[in-house]
Amino acid sequence: MDAFADGPIKATRKAKVRDGKQRERRLDMLRLQGFWPMYAAFIALCLRPPFAEEHTAHVVLRFAGLGLALLGLAVRIWSMGYLLKKEELATAGPYGRTRNPLYVGTWLIGCGLALLAAWPFNVILLVVYNVMFYLVYRAQIAIEEEMLSSIFREPYAEYMRNVPRFFPRLRAWRVGDVSTFSLGRAFRNRAWEPMLGLLVLLLLQVLAWGIAWPAIKGASLSKAWADFLAGGWIR
Q1: Residue 153: which residues within 8 A CB-CB, separation 6 or more?
Q2: Other CB atoms closer than 10 Å to residue 130's CB: what's the count?
Q3: Which has the closest alpha carbon to 89: 142, 147, 136?
Q4: What are the per-10-residue average pLDDT scores of the chain (235 residues)?
Q5: Contacts of 23 (CB under 8 A, 6+ apart)
């Protein structure tokens, strides 16, 4: 507790990570080679609108996917509003519940987009996505923990002892004075990127089930577009 008595912990050292750049390059390649094809599958397997599913449970599952994706976006924006990269150890807001709220947000967005695909492909995609996420982000988090440990030393060790690595706990760990949320800071941390990215992916999913698949099944583009405007984007 004494380490945080004077408020947020400022960065006074440079990060030292064994082979950090090389390891991060490999992870970047994995993300590029694995997750972008996965996002393409989220779009390609949107075979029909949510209300065109045969069973109510399947409809509910797809709208639950939309809810998860929006929740993930909110978590990322919330996290970015507390983050002072390379300046301060973030322990407030979502960082008092999980050490990696940005990745929690990313995970929720991916799970949501997977569930928005058509049944039963959405469940299959959800499983594959979670396996990939675990393998890639477990390694990414390990690199970042090495980096933060080298910068913040004992305060970060105390933080690790009190806050879970990934799955958030309900009650926040708060100690000492902490920084407050800033929407301006969130946008300086490029909060617009996940907002724009999610908007584009959701739009592509809607176009896939509302126009692309009807055209693939034989409808003319003009008819597919007319049906889309008449409500084919959702039923």
Answers
A1: 13
A2: 14
A3: 147
A4: 63 62 69 84 95 94 97 97 85 92 96 97 97 90 86 87 94 74 92 95 95 89 84 79
A5: 17, 139, 143
Written as six digits, the tokens of 126 are 């959800």
CB-based contacts of 174, cutoff 8 Å, min separation 6: 91, 92, 96
Dig out the tokens for 186 from the structure: 């969130």
Q: Which amino acid is at 147?
A: M
Measured distance CA(171)–CA(5) in Å, rounded? 20
Q: Which two tokens stand for residue 106?
A: 């990313």
Hey, where are the domains in the chain? Answer: 16-232
Which SS3 state, helix, strand or coil, does residue 13 take?
coil
Q: Is the pTM of this model over 0.85?
A: yes
Residue with token string 């390609």: 44
Tokens of 31: 């993300």
| 8 Å CB contact between 154 and 3 | yes
Q: Which CATH number fits domain 16-232: 3.30.70.260, 1.20.120.1630, 3.40.50.11270, 3.40.50.800?
A: 1.20.120.1630
Whole-number Å distance between alpha carbons of 47 and 211: 10
